[in-house]
Design brief:
- This protein is α/β, with parallel strands linked by helices.
- The protein is 28% helix and 24% strand.
- The chain folds into two domains: 12-221, Alpha-Beta Barrel (TIM Barrel), CATH 3.20.20.10; 237-365, Lyase, Ornithine Decarboxylase, Chain A, domain 1 (Beta Barrel), CATH 2.40.37.
- It has helices at 12-26, 36-40, 44-53, 64-72, 90-95, 105-111, 136-148, 169-185, 200-205, 338-345, 349-354, and strands spanning 7-11, 30-34, 58-61, 79-81, 98-102, 121-124, 153-157, 194-196, 213-216, 237-242, 245-249, 254-255, 261-262, 267-272, 289-292, 295-300, 308-311, 324-331, 334-336, 362-365.
- The strands form four sheets. An eight-stranded parallel beta sheet has the order 8-7-6-5-4-3-2-9.
- The longest helix has 17 residues, at 169-185.
- It comes from Mesotoga prima MesG1.Ag.4.2.
């Protein structure tokens, strides 16, 4: 049931197209698809199934419970957990065939003694993000210690800090640091040892032929990983709602909390049954737009928890309750992107899609665009 005609529409055909495109950009490296945070708000289980059907080689998630949910849905692909897992939960990773990340000597000491309950691990090398992992010299020592203690290290990875800034010299510094780590391991790593460094931006802009995988997240959903626009990416998510009320207001009338908008003329306005509880950011108050009847309509006043109001005075044909409203997406040739909303809010497209709450049902469209 959806009493307010509000949905996030997920175009699985567009998702498949993005996977094919990114696989080509990554080659000969393989594609590891990042489906953390419920696939950036798109639905991790459903998109993981499409990724598996499309021939993707591996998935990555942030936390253990995300990996378990995907595994329980019937996905057999290898899954890498990128973040911290508490000691008592490590045997659960083994049970669900999840690969964990090893980032410190303290973590190594914490897992010794679990013996046969240990899953595989991949080593996190810090080359500049300063979040997890040790610098390359210490990472070699950590690798050697782990192997001596019988822990199966199947690969190593690092993460770019500035790959979205085309021409960044820091990317080269990080690649060189990771290269020194790999060179330092020498013959101690077998030929099946997996290496990966590139995120979405790195997948599109850099040569990844020296690595086993790329880790693509945001670009798989058709969202731009940097200010450089790649027209080959097809947005997967559209967000639609409807008009719930139409009203004429007079000059001098205010709209919504705090009276932050006061009409300077007689106006026709429409109410939209969506608010910040759904993920429509309150920073869009008096700034954002939606599309109705192919026309951009500006948000008037503050966005409320469950509703906001827009100006429809300029729409020539009658607007009625129940008419479609596009929040993200395209209608009659007019478009609003997640990137546009992010710019208005002073944030990034990642946050826009991840913030769409579970109160907004995801509807999956399998046909072609």
């Amino acid at each position: 049931m959806n009493s307010r005609k509000t949905f996030a529409l997920i175009d699985l055909s567009a998702y498949r197209q993005n996977l094919v495109y990114l696989s080509g950009k990554a080659s000969p490296a393989k594609l590891m698809v990042v489906v953390k945070a419920d696939a950036y708000g798109h639905g991790a289980v459903e998109l993981s199934k499409v990724a598996q059907e499309s021939g993707v080689d591996r998935l990555a998630v942030a936390f253990l419970e995300e990996g378990i949910k995907i595994r329980q849905s019937g996905i057999s692909l290898p899954i890498l957990v990128l973040n911290y897992v508490e000691k008592k939960e490590i045997p659960t990773a083994k049970e669900f065939s999840l690969t964990l990340s090893l980032s410190s000597f303290a973590q190594l000491e914490n897992i010794i003694g679990l013996n046969k309950q240990l899953p595989d691990f991949q080593l996190v090398v810090d080359t500049g993000m300063r979040r997890l992992g040790l610098e390359w010299e210490e990472s070699i020592e950590l690798y050697n210690s782990a192997v001596r203690k019988g822990i199966n290290i199947t690969g190593a990875y690092t993460h770019f800090a500035t790959a979205d800034e085309k021409g960044s010299g820091f990317v080269l510094e990080q690649r060189e640091a990771f290269g020194r780590f790999l060179h330092g391991l020498g013959q101690r790593r077998n030929r099946h040892f997996e290496t990966h460094i590139s995120n979405s931006a790195g997948t599109i802009y850099f040569d990844n032929s020296d690595f086993s995988y790329v880790r693509a997240g945001i670009a798989t959903y058709g969202l731009q990983p940097s200010k450089e626009t790649d027209e080959n990416l097809k947005p997967v998510l559209s967000w639609v709602s409807c008009v719930s009320f139409v009203k004429r207001i007079r000059t001098g009338y205010s709209v919504s909390y705090g009276r932050t908008f006061v009409a300077d003329r007689d106006m026709l306005v429409a109410t939209i049954p969506v608010g910040y509880a759904d993920g429509y950011n309150r920073l869009l108050s008096n700034r954002g737009y939606v599309i109705i009847s192919g026309k951009r309509c500006k948000v008037l006043g503050r966005v409320c928890m469950d509703q906001f109001v827009v100006d429809i005075s300029h729409i020539e044909k009658p607007v009625s309750i129940g008419d479609e409203v596009v929040i993200v997406g395209t209608q009659e040739g007019e478009s609003i992107s997640a990137e546009e909303i992010a710019d208005l809010c002073g944030t990034i497209n990642y946050e826009v899609v991840c913030s769409i709450s579970s109160r907004v049902p995801r509807v999956y469209k399998k046909g072609v665009n």
